[in-house]
Amino acid sequence: MSTNLISQAAKELTRRLDQLARITDVRGETTRTFMSPAMGRANALVGAWMHAADLDVREDAVGNVIGRLRSKRPAARTFVFGSHLDTVKNAGRFDGALGVLLPIAAVEVIRRQGIELPFSVEVVGFSEEEGVRFSSAYLGSKGYTGRLTASDFKLEDPAGRTVAQVLAEHNGREVAPPRAAHAKKDLIGYLEVHIEQGPVLEAKGLSAGVVSAISGQTRARVGFTGHAGHAGTTPMALRKDALAGAAEFILAVEALAKARSPLVATVGWITAHPGATNVIPGSVELSLDVRHPRNEERRAAFEALEETAKAIAKRRSLGFSVKATQDNGAVSCSGSLTELLERSVRACQGSSLALPSGAGHDAVIVSSLTPVAMLFVRCRKGLSHHPDEYVQPRDLEMALAIVVDFLTRMAYQPAS
Ligand SMILES: [Zn+2]
Questions:
Q1: Phi and psi dihedrals of 57, rounded to 5?
Q2: Is 2-214+330-412's fold the same as 216-328's?
Q3: Which fold has domain 216-328?
Q4: Which residues of 319-335 are buried (b: 16+ CB within 10 A; e: fewer)?
Q5: 194 alpha carbon to ligand 1 midpoint, in Å?
Q6: Cα of 72 to ligand 1 centre, how many Å?
Q7: What's the chain's average pLDDT?
Q8: 128 CA → ligand 1 middle, Å
């Protein structure tokens, strides 16, 4: 019975996730960064599991480990699964690793069921997503999709070594930014399985949900300037308190986001000058992070917040400045792949839930090459980037059953 096969494979998946988590650059933690010794060992281990699942295994020039199940059909296109094998410092067991090891398990189940897929399957363990070593994310998926540039190669790690140097050492020769692993026409699509890193699935009592879109982000620095003055001798009516203005703005940010769900907006840090107990704050700088799955809504919200800040500054006779530091567009998931995935989720779980991803993922980069879909898996308290990151075994089993069902549906009713 396939349910037996799936529950056995899910147990093995748990064991593998534990084993992979012990591969680390820092003893007692799970820490793996781009091209580190632990990444080499992780690729070897994951490559061995891919091999055991009858995948042909290779590693590309940027350290992505790639397993391929070649269809016997001539000119068959390829469906890609993937996520990242690097981690943040002192990470958990599931972020990234789940999206590599679960598809390997799914392919094993499909093979044991004797299902012949009419397309090839590729499972990719991306070498870099978290941006830890070079303060720049997605080096692995950018390499796979042919999006690495000469300026990416000049990025330096804290030891002053460049991406180009690290890659030359790894490959035993100088390497140029690689071309895409596949032509667009040869690909069907991409599915990334990832922990939710948020509390929505837990709140709804569901093991898994389907990502509708990956939110775009606007980040900015906002400044208010007033007049520093004596806290004891300046009457309240004559003050230009930059921090009081900023406080009003922060509450306005919260109120706007609450009124425009699924908008999320955050002020993450604030500095007040001169920063003394007995001095009225003369100037303040703060960060603003605005995210929404739709670009128009995100831009409109950002503009509304800019207007609000201006109005607060005017009313309080403060100076005001805003400088956008980042503007990343939203990525929408493929309608046909998402629909198929929702069918699998409903078939296995009874009901499905669509939710936006507030965090970026490899799927953002891969979407430049082929249509993408994402499956989110419940994690305890939404916690991630932490050793206590946890996915219940029954949720792993559910996610595996969904991906097996998805592959089976693709085999019999391929997405156009
Ligand atoms: Zn991740």
A1: -115, 135
A2: no
A3: Alpha-Beta Plaits (3.30.70)
A4: ebeeeeeeebebbbbbe
A5: 7
A6: 33
A7: 95
A8: 10
Rounded to the nearest whole angstrom, what is the distance from the C-alpha of residue 391 to the centroid of ligand 1? 14
In this predicted model, what pLDDT tens digit does every residue of 99-111 receive, in sequence order?
999 999 999 999 9
Question: What is the arithmetic mean of pLDDT over 344-352?
Answer: 98
SS3 71: coil
Domain formed by 2-214+330-412, architecture: 3-Layer(aba) Sandwich (3.40)
Q: Report residue 37 CA to chain centroid gap.
A: 23
- 91 CA to middle of ligand 1, Å? 10
pLDDT at 1 over 70: no
Q: What pLDDT sits at residue 416?
A: 46
Q: How far, in Å, from the CA of 96 to the mean position of ligand 1?
A: 4
3-state DSSP assignment of residue 91:
coil
**Using an 8 Å Cβ cutoff, are 269 and 244 in contact?**
no
**In this structure, what DSSP letter does residue 238 have?**
G
CB distance 196 to 209 below 8 Å: yes
Domain-wise residue ranges, the chain: 2-214+330-412, 216-328
How far is ligand 1, taken at its centre, from the CA of residue 362, in Å? 8
What's the pLDDT at 326? 80
Alpha carbon of 4 to ligand 1 centroid (Å):
29
Q: What is the pLDDT of residues 183-218, one digit of tens each?
A: 999 999 999 999 999 999 999 999 999 999 999 999
CA of 103 to the centre of ligand 1 (A): 15
Instruction: From 117, 110, 101, select the one nearest 47 (Cα to Cα).
Output: 101
The one-letter code for the residue type at 86 is D
Residue 207 corresponds to which amino acid? S
